[in-house]
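For this section, I looked closely at a protein sequence along with its fold in token form, which I now present.
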Amino acid sequence: MEPDDKPRQAGDRLDSWKEIASYLKRTERTVRRWEKLEGLPVHRLQHDKRGTVYAYAHELEGWLESRRLTTAGAADGTANSAGHSGPAAPISKLHWPSWSAALAAASIATIVGAAAIGWTRHAANAAMPDVARDVQWARFSSPGRVQVLSSIKYSEEAIRLDPKYGPAWAQLGVAHVALAWFGEAPARETMRLAQSEAREALRLNPTLADGWRTLAYASHYLDWDQKAAEKEFQRAIELEPQNQGALFWYSEFLLDLRRFDEALAYSRRAQEAVPRGLMPIVGAGNIHFMNGHVELAIPEYERALELDPQFGIAVHFKGLAHLVQGRHAQALEELRTANELLGGVPVSIGSLGYALGITGKRQEAEDMLADLLRKRERGYYPAFPIAQIQLGLGRTDAALDWLERAADERHVGYYFPLVDPIYDGVRTDPRFVRLMARIAPH
């Protein structure tokens, strides 16, 4: 199904089926079929379900690359064993509107920029059963909008073919964890789904590392049961010592709890498991950054950007590092770029709005804040970026009000406020101290 040749050049936004088809050098009928069946990244205006469409050239390029990797059998990730016992629970569906304007308005090439470069699908050879092939296709290393939605689709198809296939349930849970990061659906819903799917995977096969790491993530972010989370992460790594996802997620968990040396050790192990994996490189930079060593963090972000100059999350944290260093003009430029690369997700919007506030660009920060409040009035929008912008504007009480709401929603930002330098100015405030005691009790 992949195109036999690559488009000659990458343009900007393509504003109709005709332009998309012309860019891909295929018929409109073909690209509509690819969008429906193969996850071609086509966006729709929020008011329209089927008619008004647009696409971004680099997202199309990423999708083409993912097709090539699938056919060529690229395998950066780790396979899991199957499970075949007991009845399966029904697949739950999220009840929320199609992706909001923040996701529909721009590319979310990855959680961390450059969508398909991070794809880690295994070979789909002719002898592989359909259910196993679907799970292999569902795997990713850098979750972006296209990858996450495709992963959910392939995982659910595998479960439809064999409801007792444990790896399919495990991968569906991983995808719902990734979906929670975007913040466009309530994290309680997506994380509860992920937790349920991980439990089903482990009921079918208790040796699935991906099931254990998803269960651990839910214990960490949803239940705030840090002792249970640590045991579950350790179980995942015991079962698969080279599972990069488990190693990296455990590193991030340790960072959230300010256990910097341990976090760095597991980040290095994740890099060794998949040397060109970008997220562990950025993660190592973040450990240095959150531990007050900005001079060590920036080279890590630059190393990731040497591998992929469009890696949005590396640009994002590099901008925050330059903000801490007082390089305001450079920081704002990088944070604006990161926001575009990531597609205006709540994480990038919150950081940019905070930076605008503390660098004196108050009116722009106020405009962003007003826009987020309008979105929240119209429907769900996470509280944490509102808290961050309020903090940047110097409104401590309002920021803590919104942070408490964010905690109730179970989405407090990219990292726990316990470790995020944005909150250094309120770290001793009694309300903040009490909230951190709820989130990460010792």
